[in-house]
User: What shape does this take?
Amino acid sequence: MDRGDVAMALALLVGVALTGQLAGLVKSAGFPVVGSVVWPVGYGTIVLAAWYLWIRPLDLRAPTPDDGDPWATDPDEPTDAEQ
Assistant: This one.
């Protein structure tokens, strides 16, 4: 885990906490309908940010026959990209 991952996790944690605090503040100020809207919009934004920054870049595809056997490689050997 590098500093970027730690920073993103902290930003998402703060975003979740601030969404809950903001929704509660708006509801206690006498605007329960607006508070009910703040809740899904805030958490939806956090979910979209997590998807965009962490999940979207992952290579989630099925292996093809051209990929070879991933368990047959020696970790000490340089790959084609490293040579």
The helical segments are 3-28, 32-55.
